[in-house]
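Appendix B, example 12.
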Amino acid sequence: HEGNDDRIQLRTLDLSSLSSIYAFASSLYRDDLPIHALINNAGTFEPRFLEDRVLLPEVNIENTIMTNYVGPFYLTHLLKPLLIRGGSGATQGGEGVAKTDTARVVNVGSKLERNACFPDPSRLTERDIRGVPLNTIRNMYAHSKHLQLLASNHEAHLSDEEEKGKGRSTACASLISHTVSPGMCDTLISRTLLPPGSLIRAITYPLRALLLNSPETGAGPVVWAATNKKAGEENGKYYDVVPEIGGVAQGGEVGYKEVVNRSSVDKEIAAKVYDLTLQVLREETQKSGLPMEIRK
């Protein structure tokens, strides 16, 4: 960012650390800031295999799963009251004004999630949330993005059900949760395989430029989901093709994938994943002496 703009703030956050996540969320509560949109864009893809897989000592969760899924889940959970407040048009002073828009959570997914699948919800356990049974980084990355999509779908379902219970349309949902695929992008997520400044990264640049989206192109559908009116009138969608934004896609209609894989649209599996994630987080936050909610 160039120039001085006091509306832009930079804060540090380590999504592989529960204590860092809690400290970050607490700082937003201290500043009394409503949140209108939360974009969960964290991603790590590190070439580790079973024999040297990293289970983070703080939480006993595999690093890829923690950074890509469990960490953002905890952050979203902590910030939910601020998001609901932001979508209600509340001011920093706490005075409610006319509802303007529903706050949105946009989870940046991946097409690789289709390589993961939970065929039987009865066999899901905490181990699946922790990433314990996985043996390759490709599996762990796909697994993390699959968990993310399922939890996002269930978050939207809970919000819609809450409105139905109040006798209101789901268009009045207190929180909108979408997943967006930016396509395969040439970002620094590949830095462990292609280190910045390395000869191999320089040599592969022409091929990457030909086959991969630029970061700017990949950001297009993410921004669309966070700001577009149509996306604000739906909930629990998986957006992929967004041709309204120049350079993002050619032809087709703005929309979302009907089916990514069977378990991605299975409500029972989504609910089980969501509940197990809460269970894991309750166990780990209790061990760390951290709360699951922030109360002012």
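Residues 89-100, 242-254 have pLDDT under 50 and may be disordered. The radius of gyration is 19 Å.
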